[in-house]
Amino acid sequence: MARSFSARIGLGIAASAALALGALAGVSPPANADAAAYYLVSDASIEESDSGKTTMNFVVSRMGDINSVAGSVRFTTVNDDPGDEFSALSPGDFVARTNYKVKFAVGQSLAVVSVKVKGDILAEYDENFSVQLHDQVEGELIDPFGVGTIVNNDPGEPPVYTVSSGLGPEGDSGTSKMAFTITRNGSTTVAGSVRYFTEGLVGFATAGEDFVNKKPTKVSFPKGVTSKTVYVVIKGDEDFEDDEYFQIDLSDPVNGSIDPFDYQYGLIQNDD
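RESULT FIELD:
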C-alpha cells in the first residue's frame, strides 16, 4: 500500500494544520483546484493502552475540484493475515468499521474517521491493520488504502509456543504413553492456549495402527505457566520392524504465536 513521499508530506501538513485550527471544513483546496475531485486516506498510529479503548484517527481528504458539488466516500477496516503476528485483528485488537459513509460538504477538503483500539497487557509486536476507501461519489479514488499501526506498550518478549520431540519403546502388547512438552516462551503475564495434533508419516508409523491419532486438542496455559506435558498413546506389537516416526503439530495459538518450525517427531523404538 505504498504512498508517494510528496503525497504523504502534503497530506500530513494539511491535516495537522486543519486539526490544530479545529476547522476541518474550512481548509483551502490546493492550487490545482480545477482538477477533478479525488479522495485519499492517511496512515495512522497510536500506542495501545492496558485496558479500555483509545481512538485512532484517519484523515480522509477530498482534493481537486471540491467547490462545485458535495461528495462522499465509504471507509472500511480490513483484517490483515490472521496467521501473521504483526497483524491486528478485529474484534480482538480494534473495533471494525464497515461501509462507514464519510460526507463532504461543498468546499470541504478534510474529514476525520475514528477507529477504536482495544487495550491489553499482552507483550506483542506492533500490529497493523488496513483501511480502504470505496464507493466514492463525485470524485475518484487516487490513494484509497491506509495502514493503522497499534504500537505495543507492554514489556517483555511476545509469547511463542513450541513442542518437543518424543521417544519411547514400542512394547510387545497393550499400550504405552509417549510424552511431549509444549513450552510457552516469552511473557506469561496473561493466560494463553494452543492446540496440538498428530499425523502418521508415509512409510513410517501409521495412525490407528502404531499409535492412537490425536485430533486437535486444546492445551491451556494459566498466567505464569510456561510448559505443559501431553501424551500420545503407542500401540505395542511383536512385529519385527524398523523404528517408526510420527509427527506432532501445533495450531490455533491464543495470546502468542507458533514457532515457524511448529512440528516435531515421535520416535517409536522397535524392541522385537
